[in-house]
Structure formats: structure tokens, C-alpha cells
């Protein structure tokens, strides 16, 4: 028979290369195995091999077999296979497919790996048998290298095949990947523990140390969880000059998950990973929607994916969808224009049919959805089949997802429908989170705008306060100077009434100047930057006592500093607070000798500072009012203040993170408390109150 009469493999265009479907399964040959094609097939194998025809005789043998038997390979053609491969006897016959061959060095036991050669119509036309020598009398037979043809046979094997080396998966054929739903990158180069459980890995290690193929039944792990049962053959070999093991796994129907279920779980896992990746890349509805639609196009192998952002069949309008598509299937130009369109009757029925369904709805475009025709608005899409489902995010409006297939292979499988049902829940969560994030982002933008407006307003207020104080103090200074000049030059000192009125005018001008300065200081407290740091209140009070020394002596007051701690704040501001509280006690003193006491007590991370006097005091109902701007209470024993001192104290303490309050009784003195955070590492006051009290 001529070589041209034999066609090997699935392609009629390649009659010179033996493209073979399987190694341990059916091999596609167009006619009986003989002639140059069969000879070429066995010659390409590195191990001794022969082809047996339907008549039980050898139709072809390779050089390796001839060299092993010491016979020319052509002399083996036509001989009965049983004359060459003699059955084993006794105990050895129980070891499996073993035979004995006669070699120039004596009998040699071998193990056989036999595969069926089939006609394209499925009829068996012969077998191809490979011989592997068994260990003889302690002699270890080295593993045989895998040739390119061996790898080609393994790649097209109908069972799952993997090559394992150094604890890693070096090769996985299409059948194994299809069953587990994996891509080459998901397996190749990864640890073998991703594919095999520990007891199967032990079998691999055992097979690598022996030349006899090891048969076993074990599990193959599925990446998404679970396993599938296989019956496997493990054989040692050399793969790229490295000791390796070939695993040929036949998947059992009675154990593990069905292949369809395994594949769907793998698709679901990949789709979930793709959606998670989409969520990390898109933080807006448009960004997340586009990335998710791209992932769905790859997952479902469709031509186009659409997402309607506002799908309300009871409404009067709908928005143009977000659309992603494969090359060659763009949407119509008018289909994705950013516009709000009136909701027609057919489109409303179409949306209602999808929204009211319990899950995804699939159909051919020509058939409609359960009696509801495909809307005319979508006729320009050129869709052959359609898979859609309603999405109800926990936040935001309802959406509608639609997948299009435009080719001849347009029908959707039940696996596709189940997969979209599972993915829809994840999509709803992502879209809900996206809507919520956009709301938060909008609130943050409003907050930032409000903060910017407030900062600008504060800057304008500070500028206005400075200019106003400057402009107001100048005429007040002129009034005071003019009245004083009148008093000295033109008013007769004997005129008591004129002298009194002149002094009253000068005093009012000076008081007004003090009010302007106080307002300027009050406005600056809330706008000026803070230099926060540790502040020693004891040292700050010492400086205040030096500044107010003349007032203290004039009032014949006794000041007890007590034991004050180191707090966290701004030194200039806290010194202002201590000065205002002390001067307030000096101004509003009673008839008894004035005593002012300073003390501190710690409570957790905060210090409470107390300033107590025995002065004029105030009514308990005025305890909150005295901190208002321009509020003054005349205790009867001192001059009136500006009404800004305590208000300034309150504003400073609040800005430093504390609070201030007061207690008092008329003619029984007043007590002021304010809190401040402690300085880092400061747990106790610098010393005891008894040991550090001083009198001023």
C-alpha cells in the first residue's frame, strides 16, 4: 500500500505528519496500519515498539526492538506477535501486562503499553505496543526519554495527562485542563500539590523510583474546591533530561463531581476573580461597569455586553446603556448616545419580562422572551441570541444586564444561565458598593467645598478684623487726644461738671480701643495656625504672675500656684487663659482679702485645671452666660471688664481639645475648671501640691 493511502490525524490537509488523537485511547488511522506510515510511527518512538495488525501479526517494528532481539526489524514483519512476546508463567504472570522475549543475552521480562488504532468510523484496525524492560536480577533499567512524538501523543490523549518533575507540574494536556476548567498557566509551573492530594503525591514519588508503571485509583484536586476520582497510570521517564513521572488519569463517572459541574465551578471562580479585578480598577459606575462587561464577554464568549443603569419598567423613560463589544460587533451609532429616551410599549414589556423573571432569561432574538417580542428599538443590534437578567443592587437604582451573541452558534446552555445567576449576586454587591461610594464621594466633595469656603471666609474675616481694628482705633485715638487737649487748655478745672464729662469721654474712648483689640484677638484664635506641643503650666503661671505683679500687690491678693502639670497645647494661648482667669479674679474681688488657688487633677488622658477665688462670685444661673461675648457681671467690688476675657478663654480651650465651665455663688467666690490633654509620657504632676505651694 502506498503512503498516500494512509491519512493520520484530524486534518485532511496534512497527510505527511502523523497527527494522532490519543496514546492510551483510539488512534485515528484511515485504513489498516501497514506501509511507510506505520513504519514511520514506530520508528519515531525511542522505546522498543511494534504494530500488530488485525490478523495478529507484526506489520511494523522499530530499530529499538530489532536491536533488543538481535534481529533486523524487517525480518520481524509478518511474524506472529505471540511468537515474539511470550506470556509470563508462575508468580510473574500475576504482575499485569508482562511478557518474556528472547534476546541474545537470554530471556528478558518486559511490561507492555498497548494502544488501539482505529479507523475514523471507530472500527479497530490494530494496536501499537511499547515494550519496557523490567528490573532483572537487581539491575535497574533507566527511565526512557520522552520524544516529541510521545509528547504529541500525550497532548492529544482523551484522558487527562500531566508530566510531573521536581514536585511541579511541567505539562498538562487539553483533556485534563478541560475537565478541571483550567488554562495552561493555571497548572504548568505550579506545585504538584495543587493537582494531587498527599497520598497521590506519595504514589508519584514511588513511581519515580521504579521502572514498572504504577496503577492506582486516587483523587485529582479541583482548584475551586473538591476533587474528582481517577484511575491512573504513573510511569517514570526523562522530560527535558530531567527525571519525571507521566500521570495518565482516566476520570471515573461514579466518583467526584461531574465534568460539567467541575467546569462550571471553574468558570465561576474565574469570573469572580475577573469581577474582583474589575472592582479594583473601576471606582465609578462607568469604570466598574466597563471592566465588568469586559470580564463577562470573556467568561461567556459572547460578542457584546450591555448594562442599563436605570431599568424601571413602570417609568416613562430609560437611559442609553453602557456597552462593550468584541471587534467586528460594534453597537449602532445611536444605541449608546448619552440621552434619556421615552420608554415605548415593547421596550417596557421587554424590561418587565426580565425584571419579573426569577433569574436570567435566554432566547433567540427571533423567538422573543416567553411570548414577548424583541423590542424594535433593539433591531439594529443584529443579535442572534440574547441572555439577560435584572440586577437589584442594595444601593442605587435597579439595572438590567444583557449579553449578545451574533454568530450562528448563538444558543445559551443551561450552564451559562446558572453561571450568570451566580454572578448576578456578585455584580449586585459591586454595583451597590459603587453607588454608595459615589454618594460618599459626592458628600466628600461637598464637605471639601464647604471647608474651602469656610477657610476663605475665615481669611476674609481675619483681614476684615485687622483692617476694621486699625480703622476704628485711629478715630478713637483722635477723640481721646482731642478731649485731653480740651481738658488741659480750655476747660476750667473749677468747672467740675465739664471736667467729669471730659474724663468720661476719654475713658470711653480708651475702653472702646480695648474692645476693638479684644475682638481682634478673639477672631484670631480660631484662624491662626497652632504650634502644639508640651506646655509647662507651672512655668506659664510664673510668667503671668510677673506680668500682673502690680495688680496683685494693689489688690493685696494671695495667689497659691499649687502643683500644675505639663499639658499638650499652645504656650501663648494657655498663658492668655491663665492671665484672663487671674485678672478676672482680681477685678471681681469681694470685701474679704482675696485668695486665688490653682490646682490640677488627672483623669485618664486629660488634666482638669481648677482656678478658685473667694471674690464677689456670681449667681449660679449665670454660669453659662458669663462665657458669652460682651457679657459682664459687676460683683460690686471692682471695675467692669470688656466682656471678652472669659469668651476668649472658652474659645482657646475648645480649640485645644478641652472644655471649660464655672461654678459660683454670690459673695462666695467663683471656681473655674478647664480640661486639657496630657503631654506624651506625662502621667503625674511634676510634684506634690503640699511640697510646691507658694504664696504671691
Estimate what percentage of residues fall within beta strands.
15-25%
**Main β-sheet description:** 7 strands, mixed
The average pLDDT is: 75
The fold-level CATH name of the largest domain is Beta-Lactamase
CATH architecture of the largest domain: 2-Layer Sandwich
Keywords:
696 residues, alpha+beta, Beta-Lactamase, 5 domains, seven-stranded mixed sheet, five-stranded antiparallel sheet, 18 helices, 23% strand, disordered N terminus
What does this structure look like?
- With 696 residues, the protein is α+β, with helices and mostly antiparallel strands.
- It has five domains: 3-133, 2-Layer Sandwich (Beta-Lactamase), CATH 3.30.450.20; 148-257, PAS domain (Beta-Lactamase), CATH 3.30.450; 264-438, GAF domain (Beta-Lactamase, 2-Layer Sandwich), CATH 3.30.450.40; 441-525; 533-692, Histidine kinase-like ATPase, C-terminal domain (Heat Shock Protein 90, 2-Layer Sandwich), CATH 3.30.565.
- Helix 13 packs parallel to helix 17 (645-655) and helix 14 crosses helix 16.
- The chain starts with 26 loop residues before the first strand and ends with a helix.
- The relative contact order is 0.05.
Short description:
The protein is α+β, with helices and mostly antiparallel strands and 696 residues long. It is 38% helix and 23% strand. Helix 10 runs antiparallel to helix 12 and helix 14 (537-547) crosses helix 16.
Amino acid at each position: 500500500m502506498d503512503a498516500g493511502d494512509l491519512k493520520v490525524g484530524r486534518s485532511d490537509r496534512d497527510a505527511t505528519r502523523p497527527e494522532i488523537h490519543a496514546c492510551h485511547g483510539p488512534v485515528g488511522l484511515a485504513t489498516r496500519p501497514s506501509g511507510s506510515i506505520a513504519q514511520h510511527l514506530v520508528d519515531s518512538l525511542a522505546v522498543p515498539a511494534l504494530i500488530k495488525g488485525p490478523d495478529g501479526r507484526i506489520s511494523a517494528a522499530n530499530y529499538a526492538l530489532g536491536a533488543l532481539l538481535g534481529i533486523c526489524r524487517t525480518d520481524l514483519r509478518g511474524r506472529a506477535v505471540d511468537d515474539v512476546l511470550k506470556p509470563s508463567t508462575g508468580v510473574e504472570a500475576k504482575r499485569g501486562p508482562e511478557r518474556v522475549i528472547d534476546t541474545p543475552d537470554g530471556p528478558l521480562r518486559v511490561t507492555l503499553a498497548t494502544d488501539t488504532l482505529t479507523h475514523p468510523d471507530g472500527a479497530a484496525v490494530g494496536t501499537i505496543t511499547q515494550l519496557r524492560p523490567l528490573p532483572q536480577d537487581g539491575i535497574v533499567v533507566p527511565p526512557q526519554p520522552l520524544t516529541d512524538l510521545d509528547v504529541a501523543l500525550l497532548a492529544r490523549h482523551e484522558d487527562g495527562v500531566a508530566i510531573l518533575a521536581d514536585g511541579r507540574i511541567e505539562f498538562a494536556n487539553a483533556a485534563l485542563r478541560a475537565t478541571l476548567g483550567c488554562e495552561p498557566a493555571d497548572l504548568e509551573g505550579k506545585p504538584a500539590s495543587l493537582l494531587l492530594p498527599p497520598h497521590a503525591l506519595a504514589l508519584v514519588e514511588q513511581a519515580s523510583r521504579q521502572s514498572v508503571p504504577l496503577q492506582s485509583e486516587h483523587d485529582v484536586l479541583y482548584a475551586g474546591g473538591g476533587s474528582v476520582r481517577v484511575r491512573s497510570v504513573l510511569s517514570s521517564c526523562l522530560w527535558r533530561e530531567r527525571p519525571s513521572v507521566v500521570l495518565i488519569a482516566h476520570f471515573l463517572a461514579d466518583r467526584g463531581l461531574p465534568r460539567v459541574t467541575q467546569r462550571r465551578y471553574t468558570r465561576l471562580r474565574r469570573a469572580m476573580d475577573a469581577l474582583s479585578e474589575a472592582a479594583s480598577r473601576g471606582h465609578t459606575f462607568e469604570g466598574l461597569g466597563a471592566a465588568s462587561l469586559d470580564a463577562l464577554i470573556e467568561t461567556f464568549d459572547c460578542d457584546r455586553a450591555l448594562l442599563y443603569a436605570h431599568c424601571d419598567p413602570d417609568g416613562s423613560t430609560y437611559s442609553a446603556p453602557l456597552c462593550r463589544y468584541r471587534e467586528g460587533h460594534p453597537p449602532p451609532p445611536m444605541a449608546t448616545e448619552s440621552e434619556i429616551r421615552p420608554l415605548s410599549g415593547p421596550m417596557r414589556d421587554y424590561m418587565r419580562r426580565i425584571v419579573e423573571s426569577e433569574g436570567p432569561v435566554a432566547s433567540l432574538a427571533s423567538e422573543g422572551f416567553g411570548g414577548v417580542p424583541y423590542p424594535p428599538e433593539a433591531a439594529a443590534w443584529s443579535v442572534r441570541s440574547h441572555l439577560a437578567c435584572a440586577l437589584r443592587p442594595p444601593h442605587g437604582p435597579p439595572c438590567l444586564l444583557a449579553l449578545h451573541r451574533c454568530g450562528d452558534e448563538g444558543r445559551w446552555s443551561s450552564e451559562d444561565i446558572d453561571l450568570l445567576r451566580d454572578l448576578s449576586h456578585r455584580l449586585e454587591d459591586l454595583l451597590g458598593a459603587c453607588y454608595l461610594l459615589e454618594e460618599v464621594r459626592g458628600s466628600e466633595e461637598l464637605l471639601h467645598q464647604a471647608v474651602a469656603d469656610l477657610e476663605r471666609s475665615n481669611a476674609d474675616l481675619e483681614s476684615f478684623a485687622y483692617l476694621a481694628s486699625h480703622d476704628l482705633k485711629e478715630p478713637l485715638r483722635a477723640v481721646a487726644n482731642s478731649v485731653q487737649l480740651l481738658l488741659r487748655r480750655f476747660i476750667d478745672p473749677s468747672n467740675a461738671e465739664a471736667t467729669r464729662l471730659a474724663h468720661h469721654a476719654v475713658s470711653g474712648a480708651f475702653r472702646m480701643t480695648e474692645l476693638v483689640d479684644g475682638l481682634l484677638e478673639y477672631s484670631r484664635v480660631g484662624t491662626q495656625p497652632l504650634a502644639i506641643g508640651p506646655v509647662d503650666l507651672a512655668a506659664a503661671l510664673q510668667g503671668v504672675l510677673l506680668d500682673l505683679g502690680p495688680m496683685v500687690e494693689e489688690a493685696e491678693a494671695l495667689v497659691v500656684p499649687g502643683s500644675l502639670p505639663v499639658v499638650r497645647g499652645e504656650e501663648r494661648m494657655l498663658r492668655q487663659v491663665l492671665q484672663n482667669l487671674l485678672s478676672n479674679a482680681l477685678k471681681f474681688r469681694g470685701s474679704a482679702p482675696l485668695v486665688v488657688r490653682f490646682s490640677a487633677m488627672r483623669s485618664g488622658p486629660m488634666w482638669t485645671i481648677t482656678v478658685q477665688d473667694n471674690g464677689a462670685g456670681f449667681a449660679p444661673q449665670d454660669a453659662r452666660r458669663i462665657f458669652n461675648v460682651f457679657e459682664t457681671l459687676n460683683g460690686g467690688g471692682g471695675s467692669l471688664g470688656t466682656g471678652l476675657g472669659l469668651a476668649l478663654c472658652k474659645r482657646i480651650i475648645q480649640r485645644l481639645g478641652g472644655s471649660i465651665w464655672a461654678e459660683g455663688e454670690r459673695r462666695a467666690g467663683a471656681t473655674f475648671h478647664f480640661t486639657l490633654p496630657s503631654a506624651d509620657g506625662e502621667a503625674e504632676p511634676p510634684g506634690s501640691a503640699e511640697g510646691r505651694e507658694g504664696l504671691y
